[in-house]
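dumping these here so i dont lose them again. two proteins, back to back, each one seq then structure tokens. dont judge the mess
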Amino acid sequence: MVPEPSFDTWPVIFLIAAVQGYFIALILWRWKSGNRRANRLLAVLLLLFALTMSEYVLYWTNYIFQYMHLANLSAQFPYLFGPLVWLYLRSIYTQEPLRFRDAWHLAPFILATVLYSPWHLLDAEHKREVTLTQHNFPVSMLVLRILLWTRVAHLLGYAVWNFIYIRRQPQVGATTRWAMSLNLFYSGFVLAYTSYFVLIRFPFFNTSWDYHISATMTAFIYLIAYAGYTQRAVFDGYHWSEPNAPVKYRNSGLTPEASRSLLQNLTSLMVQEKYFQDPEISLEKLATALHAGKHHVSQVINEHLGASFFEYVNQLRVEEAKRLLGETSRSDLHVIEVAYAVGFNNKVSFYAAFKRSTGMTPTEYRRSHGKSDGGEAQPGAV
């Protein structure tokens, strides 16, 4: 006998959240400014959450028996959630376009849908009878268990990978906080989803407690809504192109905020930790130390400091050399020792860089600014 449809408080709350999810997904899909690709990826994710919650509401209220072709419609959606979050994060960080090879993320969903197809191919009456346990489910129990635990593993794998990916990107204030918040809420859903299928095996567990899965999806939907209201960049898709940037950096994917954050890290490493003293320093080595791309490091040095990489390094070395020459005498530290101390590996390049910056040789600078050791050093003496 088909149960009578009825509503109580929780299904109403989740139905309202689902409707809001549809609405926000529509706004994001149609939003014209900023990174439209990122917006649309987020819109699809919200749409899938809203569809899943709508199906759950149909089950809880027994209206599913009137719309049997919607039953288990969302069963394989979890295979899509992780890839959508990952592709969204990649889009806001690098603005990398979607390519054909990205379709491999869909492979688990497609395979699972094929394995589950005997259910989808049933007519409404047969689905109703299966749901009322009057007939066996058309997919074997072994396949159902494999699908369930691969969904769980798939969700967990993407949650972990997304955190690793975010940590590898430049730490750029609001953007990093948004990316972390998004993946934290997604991870909350993953844990809720996983815990349900673990706890359901225990006798104390009430199957109606699956409300907590919808609660996490509701929280995710409201996170997007709240963030979009308080942080315009969310609905602008974190479009990272700087309108007034030089042409060579117009498509670099480095936002002004990211650029300032990278500059701060660069300054800390080079000025405070004196990384320039490494005689083997290179742009690649510096970029690795900063956990950033060498193109972005070069861009920050060019735009904020008005110099090339080697000009910037030599400026810092010369300033440090001036300090040492001013604080020591020739008997304390020879000029060539100063050169080696600040990172130069030969006398010629040191003298050339120093004179180009100060208009004096190191020896002349020491004579006029440094300590006297009782003797006059000749120009060029070491």
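---- next one ----
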Amino acid sequence: MTEQTALKDTLQHDLHDAMRAQDKVRSATLRMALTAVSNEEVAGTHARVLTDEDVLKVLAKEAKKRREAAEAYAGAGRQELADQEEAELAVLQGYLPEQLDDAALDELAVAAVAEVGASSMAQMGQVMKVLQPRVAGRAEGGRIAAAVRRALGA
């Protein structure tokens, strides 16, 4: 378990740089991200080394948590906590691939629907199975599902 992916190495290097620069938000966020990666490596019955793709999935999951928490805090009138979550989200987004905009996502969804030949919501799972690998970390699952629903006309 001594091998590491390039992305995990980058995270650790950036953590050390943030600690030297005394950037509290960045160092705390990178510590949290590395902890989430480590937890994922030992989750399940066998410890494993995550690929860069797996590390990206963990980072995307953590980014989604931050986004949802920021919305919840803002909705509850706790702007200082929402700002903290958004600052952490900004750090995480620096490691994630560029997110697709709705138009590009809709275009990919329409192409996947045509490829599968889907005509109803009952075939949504088949379309999602084709579309998700193509999107690969560039959009959250909820956005992908919404694009497929629009493409299916539901």
